[in-house]
Design a protein that fits this description.
By secondary structure, the chain is an alpha/beta fold. Helices cover 29% and strands 24% of the residues. The chain is built from six helices and 13 strands. A six-stranded mixed beta sheet has the order 2-1-3-6-12-13, with helices on both faces. A four-stranded antiparallel beta sheet has the order 8-9-7-10. It has a three-stranded antiparallel beta sheet with strand order 4-5-11, covered by helices on one side. The chain is globular, with a radius of gyration of 17 Å. Bound molecules: ribulose-5-phosphate. Ribulose-5-phosphate binds next to helix 2 and helix 4.
Length: 221
Amino acid sequence: MDQDQLKRSAAQAALDYIAPKLDGSSVVGVGTGSTTNHFIDLLAGIKHTFNATVSSSEASAERLRGHGIAVLDLNAVDGVAVYVDGADEVNGARQLIKGGGGALTREKIVAASADEFVCIVDASKRVEVLGDYPLPVEVIPMARGLVAREIRELGGHPELRQDFVTDNGNVILDVHGLKIFDPTELERTLNNIVGVVCNGVFAAQAADLVFIAAAGGVETL
Ligand code: 5RP
């Protein structure tokens, strides 16, 4: 199985898991990225079994609408039953690095709104210690120099993501060189830097469940 087939297997596992929990009033939170795109395509097959979705990005919203699935503003819904999204890295505590697609802020907001956060990855994303993947940090544009200096003080090497503006009109610093032994502490520290909108460590609120697709099958973490 190639990596794309593994991503689809993880997405299928998530669909099988959430389908029995949905009813006509359910709102499904939908993430961003190539693994989530498989989930969106599969979700289309059960679109008559739930009410609507909320999306973490314009790109996913467009794909959902393309399938005839309703996409609502998060402020227009009372709650989100489940949020399904991919990740760039996953550790054994279901803590994540996310934001490779630059949608981390909306992803964290929708994840925080959901009763349950289901993460879907192929086995290449599983790590012992987070940090080999450059950590995305969304920053208010005028603060990027200030934030970059503060991150260097923490031992990271920030790089401005070129030719990229988030759905919120901000920039992304991708931080290299961090070995994240205490994800909760780093998440909090980065959030406290003035000018940081959000960072891609999902630790304070980790995933509730992770489906990891490998050649031998899908493991549940
Ligand atoms: C987007 C994300 C994605 O979930 C993450 O980058 C994984 O993407 P993919 O499923 O394409 O490997 O956090 O901001």
